[in-house]
């Protein structure tokens, strides 16, 4: 199972779309709000090169774009 971290913000509708999918499918992953303190946002920029949310970090690799994130999660979790 890949190590998964989702960077998100409460105010971002694209983040909320991904969070809804995660909740509905009972997917367990680490959540990091980039509006909470400075560190999460700085970490995301370091990993992915930009602060855009949502971003799913898969074993250290950044995947941006909510639709791509949901597609990736669908593929990953249909097998488990
Ligand atoms: N097409 C992207 C849009 C994501 C997006 O626009 N995110 C905004 C917040 S709602 C954002 O992170 N803006 C700040 C930035 O790009 O650094 C998706 O579907 O994930």
Report what the structure shows.
The structure is a single chain. The chain is built from 3 helices and 4 strands. It has 80 residues and is α+β, with helices and mostly antiparallel strands. The chain has a single domain, classed as Glutaredoxin (3-Layer(aba) Sandwich), CATH 3.40.30.10. Strands 2-1-3-4 form a 4-stranded mixed β-sheet, with helices on both faces. β1 (4-8), α1 (13-24) and β2 (30-33) form a beta-alpha-beta unit. α1 (13-24) packs parallel to α3. Bound molecules: glutathione.
Secondary structure blueprint with pairings:
Layout (H helix, E strand, L loop, with lengths): L3 E5 L4 H12 L5 E4 L5 H10 L6 E4 L2 E4 L1 H13 L2
Parallel strand pairs: 1-2
Antiparallel strand pairs: 1-3, 3-4
Helix pairs in contact: 1-3
The site of glutathione has 11 residues, from α1 and α3.
